[in-house]
């Protein structure tokens, strides 16, 4: 089997597994909360995913690898100022201490996703896999929020009370 073909078969198998696996936000003692990202500006473009990593256990864990079935490349990045410039640097891993959540946010740590395969307006999330030294692999869905928003999606507001009083309700 040619190398390219083998790669395709491998990717197909990965996608099949990803399709079956339930999206989750907890894996062992590791938890992901408030995940969000913007869609890339054009199909095949890049974007960054943000969230909060929480270690609910007693031992230090480490995020050691990231990947996405919806992007050709994924990496742990940090924005850091170097000689007056803001640059992105690739990190090998991120330690998560118990009781000290690690924030991935604009201007700081982020998961860089390059060549995102899904960028249509209907796309609601991008799948992401995080591998932790202790907790193992977590698969989650990162919701895509509108470009005007810089944070996790807002919960839908509760339906408004009708302005007309309910039958039997007394007006004040
Ligand atoms: Cu980056």
List the helices and strands and how they pair.
Layout: H1 3-20, E1 26-27, E2 30-37, E3 47-55, E4 61-67, E5 71-82, E6 85-90, E7 94-96, E8 102-104, E9 109-116, E10 125-132, E11 136-143
Antiparallel strand pairs: 1-2, 2-3, 3-8, 3-9, 4-7, 4-10, 5-6, 5-9, 10-11
Copper (II) ion (CU) is lined by residues 48, 77, 88, 110, 112.
Describe the structure.
The protein has 172 residues and is mainly beta. It has a single domain (23-143), classed as Immunoglobulin-like. It is built from one helix and eleven strands; from the N terminus they run αβββββββββββ. The chain has one helix at 3-20; strands at residues 26-27, 30-37, 47-55, 61-67, 71-82, 85-90, 94-96, 102-104, 109-116, 125-132, 136-143. The strands form two sheets. Strands 1, 2, 3, 5, 6, 8 and 9 form a seven-stranded antiparallel beta sheet that branches. Strands 7-4-10-11 form a four-stranded antiparallel beta sheet, with no helix packed on it. The longest helix has 18 residues, at 3-20. The radius of gyration is 20 Å and the shape is globular. The protein starts with a helix and ends in a 29-residue tail after the last strand. Mean pLDDT is 83; it is low at 5-23. Bound molecules: copper (II) ion. Copper (II) ion is lined by residues 48, 77, 88, 110, 112.
């Amino acid at each position: 089997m040619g190398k390219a073909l083998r790669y395709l078969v491998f990717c197909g198998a990965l996608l099949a597994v990803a399709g079956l696996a339930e999206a989750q936000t907890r894996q062992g003692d590791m938890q992901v909360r408030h995940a969000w990202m913007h869609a890339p500006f054009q199909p095949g473009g890049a974007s960054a995913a943000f969230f909060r990593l929480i270690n609910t256990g007693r031992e230090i864990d480490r995020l050691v690898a990231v990947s996405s079935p919806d992007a050709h490349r994924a990496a742990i990045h940090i924005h850091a100022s170097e000689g007056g410039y803001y640059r992105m640097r690739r990190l090998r891993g991120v330690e998560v201490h118990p009781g000290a959540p690690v924030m991935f946010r604009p201007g700081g740590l982020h998961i860089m996703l390059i060549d995102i395969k899904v960028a249509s307006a209907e796309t609601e999330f991008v799948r992401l896999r995080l591998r932790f030294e202790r907790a193992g692999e977590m698969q989650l869905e990162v919701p895509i929020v509108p470009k005007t928003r810089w944070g996790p999606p807002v919960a839908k507001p509760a339906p408004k009370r009708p302005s007309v009083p309910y039958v039997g309700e007394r007006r004040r």
